[in-house]
């Protein structure tokens, strides 16, 4: 993916310094922005997929689908429902409880990871993997700095550990039983046309489909593997037959369990 950094408008000298620092960290070019020059003009001139912009509100990612900046999204509403005692299907499918260790292999905007982090608490572990370098950076910064109206959510965000890597590659480096559960929420093969929240993420996201070999590796790393999907055929093709989900939603959580005779 071809990306570069530049400064936002109206932020003084701190912004170019910040953008240069990020460029060094991410090993991508820093592009000098002439006056109030448009981001689209820079993107076209340098043939970029996206531009990481240092703004006074933190990093923002500009692409053909618009501007992306970190926000906890649906995690806020989901957390309120958990406070009210409602079941969260992701938590139920992953069998999360205080102290659980979960590897979120497809971090994205970390809404699921935020919920997981709240549920597993201080003694648990949430590690998130993200294959897209700009998304990993944007979300990692957001998890460290975002301030919501709910201190318990902010504490949960700060506890999430992130890593820029592709899941299939990273799983191979992990010892058996390093986690209690590995979770996958890959980009849907057939995007939901009306779903606007994933739209700006798509041009920046890693979109290769999940393959069986990765699930086999995940089942070595944890005895429970959960895959979120909205097309049942995709889950069946991956050899997953146990499903959990609401009858009101197409989204299902496919569950794979290590068999008793499978050694680690
Ligand atoms: C649908 S989003 C995940 C949304 C996330 N569950 C949330 O709550 O915000 C999928 C994300 O996983 C990343 N991704 C997809 N496949 C991956 C893989 N094999 N390894 C690491 N990251 C992956 C994509 O770049 C994208 O950011």
How would you characterize this protein structure?
This protein has two domains: 3-68, no CATH class; 75-257, Vaccinia Virus protein VP39 (Rossmann fold, 3-Layer(aba) Sandwich), CATH 3.40.50.150. The chain has ten helices and eleven strands. The two termini are 36 Å apart. It has helices at residues 14-26, 39-45, 75-83, 89-93, 111-120, 133-145, 151-159, 167-171, 212-221, 232-237, and strands at 3-7, 50-55, 58-63, 66-68, 101-104, 125-130, 161-164, 181-184, 224-229, 242-244, 252-257. Strand 8, helix 9 (212-221) and strand 9 (224-229) form a beta-alpha-beta unit. The strands form two sheets. A seven-stranded mixed beta sheet has the order 7-6-5-8-9-11-10, with helices on both faces. The protein is α/β, with parallel strands linked by helices. S-adenosylmethionine (SAM) binds at residues 105-106, 108-112, 129-132, 135, 166-168, 185-187, 205-206.
Structural domain count = 2
Query: Can you tell me the residue ranges where pLDDT is under 50 for at least 5 consecutive residues?
Result: none
Averaged pLDDT: 93
Described by the principal axes of the CA atoms, the overall outline is globular
Q: Supply the CATH class of the largest domain.
A: Alpha Beta
């Amino acid at each position: 993916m071809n990306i570069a950094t530049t400064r936002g408008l109206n932020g003084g000298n701190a912004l170019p310094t910040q953008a240069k620092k990020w460029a060094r960290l991410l090993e991508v070019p820093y592009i000098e922005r002439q006056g109030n020059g448009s981001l689209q003009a820079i993107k076209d001139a340098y043939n970029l997929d996206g531009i990481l912009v240092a703004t006074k509100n933190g990093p923002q990612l500009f692409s053909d689908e618009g501007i992306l900046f970190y926000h906890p999204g649906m995690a806020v509403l989901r957390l309120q429902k958990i406070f009210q005692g409602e079941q969260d299907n992701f938590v139920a499918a992953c069998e999360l409880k205080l102290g659980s260790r979960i590897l979120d292999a497809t971090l994205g905007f970390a809404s699921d990871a935020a919920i997981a982090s709240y549920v597993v608490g201080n003694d648990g572990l949430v590690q998130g993997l993200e294959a897209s370098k700009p998304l990993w950076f944007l979300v990692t910064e957001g998890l460290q700095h975002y301030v919501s109206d709910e201190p318990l959510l902010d504490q949960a965000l700060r506890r999430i550990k992130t890593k820029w890597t592709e899941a299939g590659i990273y799983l191979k480096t992990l010892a058996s039983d390093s986690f209690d559960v590995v979770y996958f929420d890959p980009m849907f093969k057939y995007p939901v046309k009306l779903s606007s929240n994933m739209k700006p993420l798509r041009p920046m996201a890693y979109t290769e489909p999940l393959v069986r070999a990765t699930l086999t590796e995940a089942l070595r790393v944890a005895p429970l593997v959960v895959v979120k999907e909205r097309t049942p055929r995709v889950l069946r093709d991956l050899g997953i037959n146990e499903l959990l989900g609401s009858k009101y939603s197409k989204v299902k959580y496919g569950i794979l369990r290590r068999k008793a005779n499978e050694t680690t």
